[in-house]
Design a protein that fits this description.
It contains four helices and 30 strands. The strands form seven sheets. Strands 1, 2, 3, 4, 5 and 6 form a six-stranded mixed sheet that branches. A four-stranded antiparallel sheet has the order 9-8-7-30, with no helix packed on it. α2 packs parallel to α4.
Length: 443
């Protein structure tokens, strides 16, 4: 398979080397220039193998989800469908490669296939081919229920496979989920949705206040803070059977949980000694270790996923909230952002190179999302002139960021590419805050 090149375009040429860290392990990155080349991909509408009206409706959903996933990946230049040949392919023998390589189309790769109903199920045959070499890249067949959730899952799977095959060896985020806090039910509960906002559903039903959800490394549990017993305690709840795991009530405030990369430890803030400090324990709350010991508030720990032995956190020990980094023994503390203002809400990228955070540079300004190279201290502003943008979190592929914003008057969850482009709201009902992005399925 020929190499594919891709570069997230930046407005500041001096930060190109910085963004190279963000995508250093992806084969599609081209560095050293201000422009880049993305694979030009044609995504043909899948063809129906019968006139079943329900099949037609489900196939329209499949086509839409597949296109949107690939578009949101940021890795491809999608060929507009108005340029496609009149007769679209359903099977390999239908592909006329000269039409797809013609000047109007100029596709490098082509995704196509067909759909049918078999024994009451939606069946879709998916193919990806290299137009220039005419070689098959992948061929897959999915059989799911004949309803929207199943059809969407099939489209997500094929989109993720395309990203994996020709986007640099890392799958897409189509099958990932986002948890968040929402007050749409009248109480602030934890909710879960697909990464694109579909299937929003309540995860908790405490009829109280729930805050700061965080996924476990294997996606099987969510840790969060709840006032269900009148005190802000930490809870860990299974996504498999909704069972609450045993975790002690330490007294005072217990919040902002963060799962260690090993899946066996959890960091959090506790005010059991009156002063909020960062602690680590196992996931049952045992072997408790205090990491910080300073006057003021220490909160919002986030692990370095690459090393598993560093944490970033927020502290107002210098007078205003700022981001610091320390090791998992509480030593080697250093301040990350040194230019003043208020810097909060750190989130470490999965590759360990970058930290996303919210920064209000002046007290009269708004919070905006930034990313910083942890080693070099260079930073890039991703949001601007759109209200307060806070609590950024990384997707598992390091290509996307979710965050909350009040740009429309109420706080909603947004997603965007890691260069700040393609900002898109994925919630609209009630007030929605504190997103947390799941890991890849099966990880």
């Amino acid at each position: 398979m020929r190499p594919k090149l891709s570069l997230l375009l930046l407005t500041a040429a001096g930060l190109l080397a910085f963004i190279q860290h963000l995508l250093s392990y992806q084969a599609q990155v081209k560095t050293g220039t201000q422009t880049g080349v993305r694979a030009r991909l044609a995504v043909s509408d899948f063809q129906l193998r019968s006139s079943d009206p329900q099949l037609a409706a489900m196939t329209r959903i499949f086509n839409e989800v597949l296109w949107n996933d690939l578009d949101m990946s940021g890795l491809f230049e999608l060929v507009p469908k108005s340029f496609y040949p009149v007769k679209l392919p359903a099977q390999p023998q239908d592909v006329v490669f000269e039409q797809w390589s013609a000047n109007e189309v100029k596709a490098q790769d082509l995704a196509y296939g067909n759909s049918s109903v078999e024994r009451g199920q939606f069946v879709v045959e998916c193919r990806l081919v290299d137009v220039s070499t005419r070689e098959s890249i992948t061929g897959l067949r999915y059989r799911v229920g004949l309803e929207e959730p199943g059809v969407r899952s099939a489209a997500h799977k094929f989109a993720d496979e395309i990203v994996l095959k020709i986007g640099g060896g890392i799958p897409g985020v189509g099958q990932t989920s986002i948890s968040f806090a929402s007050d749409r039910s009248g109480n602030k509960e934890i909710w879960v949705m697909d990464y694109d906002g579909y299937g929003q559903r309540a995860f908790t039903s405490h009829r109280s206040i729930c805050l700061t959800p965080r996924w476990s490394r294997d996606n099987s549990k969510i840790a969060y803070t709840s006032y269900r017993r009148g005190n802000p305690d930490l809870y860990i709840q299974s996504l498999i059977d909704n069972r609450l795991l045993s975790f002690p009530a330490f007294g005072g405030l217990t919040t902002t949980p963060a799962w260690a990369p090993d899946g066996e430890r959890i960091a959090f803030t506790s005010s059991q000694t009156q002063d909020p400090e960062i602690y680590i324990s196992d996931i049952r709350g045992r072997n408790l270790k205090r990491l910080t010991n300073s006057r003021g508030v220490d909160i919002s720990p986030t692990w370095n996923p690459k090393t598993g032995h560093e944490l970033a956190f927020v502290s107002d020990r210098s007078g205003t909230p700022q981001i610091f980094v320390m090791d998992d023994e509480g030593a080697n503390v250093r301040r990350l952002v040194t230019e003043g203002g208020e810097a909060v809400g750190p989130s470490w990228s999965p590759d360990g190179a970058l930290i996303a955070f919210s920064w209000r540079k002046a007290l009269t300004g708004n919070f905006d999302v930034f990313i910083m190279d942890v080693v070099k201290g260079e930073y890039l502003q991703l949001t601007r002139n759109n209200g307060n943008n806070e609590h950024p979190v990384w997707s598992p592929d390091s290509r996307h960021i979710a965050f909350e914003s009040n740009r429309t008057g109420t706080k909603q969850i947004y997603i965007m590419l890691a260069d700040g482009s393609r900002q898109k709201a994925v919630t609209s009902s009630g007030r929605n805050t504190a997103p947390s992005w799941s890991n890849f399925p099966g990880k």
